TrEMBL record:
Keywords: Cell membrane, Glycoprotein, Leucine-rich repeat, Membrane, Receptor, Repeat, Signal, Transmembrane, Transmembrane helix
Annotated GO CC locations: plasma membrane
Protein name: Leucine-rich repeat-containing N-terminal plant-type domain-containing protein
Main location: membrane
Organism name: Castanea mollissima
Signal peptide from the UniProt entry: 1-27
A Pfam family: LRR_8
Membrane-related topology note: Single-pass type I membrane protein
Similarity field: Belongs to the RLP family.
Keyword check for Transport: no
UniProt KW Cell membrane keyword: yes
Transmembrane intervals: none
Highest taxon above the source species: Eukaryota
Length: 556
C-alpha cells in the first residue's frame, strides 16, 4: 500500500481518538492531574504517527492489503457522542468493531453504523447508549456476532423483524437488558439456523413462548432469564438442541414433563431456572448431568428433601437453591464437592451444619440464612470465604476461633441466632477486609481493652445485641457508612469521637431505644441522611449541624 494511503489511515485513526468527537475524559489541551498519571493514554502508547497504524494497540489490518479491518477500543475511557460525521465512519473496510465498556453519554447509536457493509463482529455493550436501535443495523448482512447488551436501548418490532430477516449469518446475538417489551415471543422464531448464542437476559419479554425456541439446530447458549412475564406450556421437547451447554429460562412456562426431560441435555454445563414457579420435588436429573458447573433453581416453589445427587456433581462450582420450600437436613457426608458459591437461603432446612460446609477449599460465598439450622458453627478449614451469611437460624454457642483464618472475608451476617459473641477478641482483629458485619439479635459482649481496627468496615449492625457501651474500635473506622446500635443498653453520654467516625462517609445512624444521657451528639458527616435518637434521655438543644445536613431525609 502506498505511503499516502497509510498516512490517510493514520490521520483518521488519530482523529478518532484525539479529537472531540470521541474524547478521553480529559482532552489533550487540559491537565490529566485529576486521574492517575498518563492512565488515560496507556491503552494507546503505541499510537504514534511515525509508526504504521497496523502496529498500534487495538488496530487490526488485513495482511495482504494493510487496510484497517479491526478496531478494538474496549475499556478505553472514551466518552461523549459519536457524531454522524465521525472519522470512525471513514474506515469502510472494518470487519470487527468493539467499543464496549466506554461512556457515550446516553447518546443514540448513529445510523451510519449501517454503512459498515463488511462488518462481521459489532460489540457496543456497556457503553451508555440509549434510544432506539437504528434499523440500519439490520443492513449489516455479514454480521456473525452482535452485542448491544447493558445499554438503555429499545428494540421496536419493525427493527426486530428486519434483524432476524436480514442477518442470516448471525451466530451470536446478545441484547441483555435491552427493552424488548413490544416484541412478542413468537417473533423469536425464524432466527438464523446458524445461531449458537441467543442471550436476551432481562429484556422485559412478555407473552406466550413457543416450544420450538428450544430447538434451534445449532444453539449452544440460550439465556432468557429475568423475563418474569413470559408464559407458555413448554412440553417435552425433541431436544434437537442436544449440543446445548447453557440454558437459562424464567417465567411461568413449565410442565413437569418438560422439567423431567432436561436429563436429555447431556452437554449442559450451565442451567438457570430462577423464578419459574416450579412446584414439587427437585428432579433426580442433576446427578445425571455430570458436566454441570452452574445450577440455579432459586425463587421457585420446590418442596421436599434435597436430593443427594445434587452433592455428587464433581464439576459443580455454583449451586443456588434459595427461596424455595425445601425441608430436612443437609447430608452428613459429601465427597468430591468443590463449590465456589452455595446458597440455600430462605428454605425450611433444619438439623446441624455438617463439617463439609466449612471444608471446601474454594468456597467463596456461603448463604444459609432464613432456615432452621441448630447447633454450633463448625471450624473453618480454609481462608477462601468472602461472603458468609448464617443469619436467621437457631444456631448457638460461640463463634469458632478459626474465623480468624478468613482473611478474605468482606461480609459476615450472623444476625438473629442464639450466639454468644465477644466483639473485640483477637479473631475479629485479623479480618482486615471486612466491610459488612451484622451481629444483631444475638448476645454480644464488647472488649474495649483490645486495640485493633477494622479499616475497611462500612456497615455495622449490632441492634438487639444486649451491649452496654460503644465499640471503641469504631474510632479508627474511616469508611463507615451505616451504624445501627439501636435497642440495646448503652448508657452515658455519646462519646465525642463518634462525631468523626466514617470520615464524612456516614449517612445512617441509629441509636434509638438505649439509655443515652447528656447533650445531643454532634456528628460531623455532611452526608447524613437518616438519624434515629428517640427513646433515650438526651437533653439540651438540637445542635446546629442538623441545619447543614442538606441530604437529611429522616430525623427521629
Amino acid at each position: 500500500m502506498g505511503r499516502s494511503t497509510w498516512k490517510y489511515q493514520v490521520f483518521f485513526l488519530f482523529c478518532l481518538i484525539l479529537h472531540s468527537q470521541l474524547p478521553f475524559p480529559s482532552s489533550l489541551s487540559t491537565s490529566f492531574s485529576s486521574m492517575p498519571p498518563c492512565s488515560a493514554l496507556l491503552h494507546f502508547t503505541s499510537w504514534q504517527e511515525d509508526k504504521h497504524c497496523c502496529t498500534w494497540d487495538g488496530v487490526e489490518c488485513d495482511k495482504n492489503t494493510s487496510l484497517v479491518v479491526g478496531l478494538d477500543l474496549t475499556s478505553s475511557w472514551l466518552y461523549g457522542n459519536i457524531l454522524s460525521n465521525s472519522t470512525l465512519f471513514f474506515l469502510p473496510n472494518l470487519r470487527r468493531l468493539n467499543l464496549a465498556d466506554n461512556a457515550f453519554n446516553d447518546s443514540l447509536i448513529p445510523s451510519e453504523f449501517g454503512n459498515f457493509k463488511s462488518l462481521t463482529h459489532l460489540n457496543l455493550s456497556y457503553s451508555v447508549f440509549s434510544g432506539q436501535i437504528p434499523f440500519e443495523i439490520s443492513q449489516l448482512s455479514s454480521l456473525v456476532s452482535l452485542d448491544l447488551s447493558k445499554n438503555e436501548l429499545l428494540v421496536k418490532a419493525l427493527v426486530w423483524k428486519r434483524v432476524i430477516g436480514n442477518l442470516t449469518q448471525l451466530r451470536e446475538l446478545i441484547l441483555d437488558s435491552t427493552n424488548m417489551s413490544s416484541i412478542r415471543p413468537n417473533f423469536l422464531m425464524n432466527l438464523s439456523s446458524s445461531l449458537t448464542t441467543l442471550s436476551l437476559h432481562y429484556c422485559d419479554l412478555q407473552g406466550q413462548l413457543e416450544n420450538n425456541i428450544l430447538c434451534l439446530p445449532s444453539i449452544q447458549t440460550l439465556d432468557l432469564t429475568g423475563n418474569w412475564n413470559l408464559e407458555g406450556s413448554l412440553l417435552k421437547s425433541n431436544w434437537s438442541c442436544s449440543s446445548l451447554k447453557f440454558l437459562g429460562l424464567s417465567g411461568r412456562m413449565f410442565s413437569r414433563e418438560f422439567l423431567n426431560s432436561i436429563d436429555n441435555l447431556k452437554s449442559l454445563k450451565h442451567l438457570a431456572l430462577p423464578g419459574c414457579n416450579i412446584t414439587g420435588s427437585i428432579p433426580a436429573w442433576p446427578g445425571i448431568l455430570t458436566k454441570l458447573t452452574y445450577l440455579d433453581l432459586s425463587n421457585n416453589s420446590f418442596s421436599g428433601l434435597l436430593p443427594s445427587s445434587l452433592f455428587n456433581l464433581p464439576n459443580l462450582s455454583t449451586l443456588l437453591l434459595g427461596y424455595n420450600q425445601l425441608v430436612g437436613p443437609l447430608p452428613s457426608h459429601v465427597s468430591g464437592l468443590n463449590l465456589i458459591v452455595l446458597s440455600l437461603s430462605s428454605n425450611f432446612l433444619n438439623g446441624t451444619l455438617p463439617s463439609w460446609l466449612f471444608s471446601m477449599p474454594s468456597l467463596e460465598s456461603l448463604y444459609l440464612y432464613g432456615n432452621q439450622f441448630v447447633g454450633e458453627i463448625g471450624e473453618f478449614k480454609y481462608n477462601s470465604l468472602k461472603y458468609l451469611n448464617l443469619g436467621y437460624n437457631k444456631l448457638h454457642g460461640s463463634i469458632p476461633r478459626s474465623v480468624s483464618r478468613l482473611v478474605n472475608l468482606t461480609t459476615l451476617y450472623l444476625s438473629s441466632n442464639n450466639l454468644s459473641i465477644m466483639l473485640g477478641s483477637e479473631m475479629f482483629s485479623k479480618l482486615k477486609n471486612l466491610e459488612t458485619l451484622d451481629l444483631s439479635n444475638n448476645s454480644v459482649s464488647i472488649n474495649n481493652n483490645a486495640a485493633y481496627a477494622l479499616p475497611n468496615l462500612q456497615y455495622l449492625y449490632l441492634a438487639y445485641s444486649n451491649i452496654s457501651e460503644f465499640p471503641i474500635f469504631l474510632r479508627l473506622t474511616t469508611n463507615l457508612q451505616s451504624l445501627d446500635l439501636s435497642n440495646n443498653r448503652i448508657y452515658g453520654q455519646v462519646p465525642r469521637w463518634l462525631g468523626d467516625v466514617g470520615n464524612n462517609s456516614l449517612y445512617y445512624v441509629d441509636l434509638r431505644n438505649n439509655l443515652l444521657q447528656g447533650p445531643f451528639p454532634i456528628l460531623n458527616s455532611s452526608n447524613l441522611q437518616f438519624m434515629f435518637f428517640s427513646n433515650n434521655k438526651l437533653t439540651g438543644e438540637i445542635p446546629s449541624f442538623i441545619c447543614n445536613a442538606i441530604y437529611l431525609a429522616v430525623l427521629d
